Amino acid sequence: xxxxxxxxxxxxxxxxxxxxxxxxxxxxxxxxxxxxxxxxxxxxxxxxxxxxxxxxxxxxxxxxxxxxxxxxxxxxxxxxxxxxxxxxxxxxxxxxxxxxxxxxxxxxxxxxxxxxxxxxxxxxxxxxxxxxxxxxxxxxxxxxxxxxxxxxxxxxxxxxxxxxxxxxxxxxxxxxxxxx
Length: 180
Prior knowledge:
Residues 1-31 form the signal peptide. The protein has 180 residues and is an alpha/beta fold.
């Protein structure tokens, strides 16, 4: 088969897109993990409250409680390459904005506190990390992750999409959601 360079480029892009999409479904990660050592268990105690598993109603209550400031929500998994790429951007935003100006919620779909805590073993996240039940992914229509949803200060959804977004684009959306 004689193909043109443009066709080969499009085919390669399509194959890459399928590979990324299949690696980032909203299915929970495997809960199999090694037994944590004493240091990990001590650090785990610090995360106990933050990593309680929330259902859809509890997540919606958390978002509603933030009225008066934008809320950026990300549904993610430790096994999703695009999520791992997006998290540092979200961490920078959580660090950049005062808590009264923006709340960043990282809703983890893995369902395993030790897996999530192990992911953040090098640092304490600036954003709020919450474990959520699988039903939360359905409620947010998160077929693919990372799934980003931005609510403005009045609690209205102003952005809802899956995929990686660079910091500059998210900053522009947050500024608009803040009314700036």
